[in-house]
Amino acid sequence: MTQKVRIVFILYPRLTQLDFTGPYEVLARVPDAQAIIASKEGGELRTEMGLSFANLAKLSDIDCADMIMVPGGPGQSEAMLDADFMAQVKRLGEGAKYITSVCTGSLILGAAGLLKGKRAGSHWAYRDLLPMFGAIADEARVVRDGNIITGGGVTAGIDIALTIAAELAGEDTAKMIQLAIEYAPAPPFNSGRPEIAEEKTVAAVKQLFAAFAQQRRDAIAQFTGNA
Predict the structure, then answer these.
(1) Do 16 and 72 contact (CB within 8 A), yes or no?
(2) At a CB cut-off of 8 Å and minimum separation 6, what does 63 contact?
(3) Which of 75, 100, 115, 116 could make an S-S bridge to 149, C-beta 3.0–4.6 Å?
(4) pLDDT of 72-120, one tens digit each?
(5) How far is 91 from 29, CA to CA, in rounded Å?
(6) Average pLDDT in the 59-77 region?
């Protein structure tokens, strides 16, 4: 009997739901994969936009994971400063074969000490914060360094998950999953990355995210003892 690959999605309040649900849609389809959704308290959890997830497992009840997947979101700073939550991320991450994240979930991995000396990605607006954890910021949409797979913001989670699916089950299976979910991006606007978006659009989004960026920087400084 084939042993299932245990993938633990580590959630926290005010995460960005697509950072989680996008990869989940892919990875839950991987043959012989067991997807476990967990949080510090277990039970019910509310996301950034008010959507709730229920019946979550409790992180402390999970003895081990073959892979951890950490999404990003506005609640990342508070989660990072929660010592009990971070202890569980560190414990499960240190024992996992694969350590993965989407968007600013990589900042949580960094805070857990899992990215030192490693290339890692994040949402473009917060990528420059990764070196504060000893990581090497990489602008690629999907970034792999050994057993660590991270990447860009929100929608990049599907690309990250397909990369993981190919690692776990082979490229043919990953291609089948991609077709099954009809993942064939054809955006109406060519503004999905700062390198190709209009300058006025980049400036507007930077202004929109400025407060979040400073909040995250302050939280990291507090976490690392440099406040």
Answers:
(1) yes
(2) none
(3) 100
(4) 999 999 999 999 999 999 999 999 999 999 999 999 999 999 999 999 9
(5) 26
(6) 97
**pLDDT value, residue 2:** 62
User: Mapped to the 3 state alphabet, what secondary structure does the chain carry?
Assistant: CCCCEEEEEECCCCCCHHHHHHHHHHHCCCCCEEEEEEECCCEEEECCCCCEEEEEEEHHHCCCCCEEEECCCCCHHHHHCCHHHHHHHHHHHHHCCEEEECCCHHHHHHHCCCCCCCEECCCCCCHHHHHHHCCEECCCCEEEECCEEEECCCCHHHHHHHHHHHHHHCHHHHHHHHHHCCCCCCCCCCCCCCCCCCHHHHHHHHHHHHHHHHHHHHHHHHHHCCC
Closest CA to 11 of 42, 49, 51: 42
Task: Return the pLDDT at 173.
Answer: 98
The active-site residue out of 7, 38, 69, 103 is 103
In the annotation, is 64 catalytic?
no
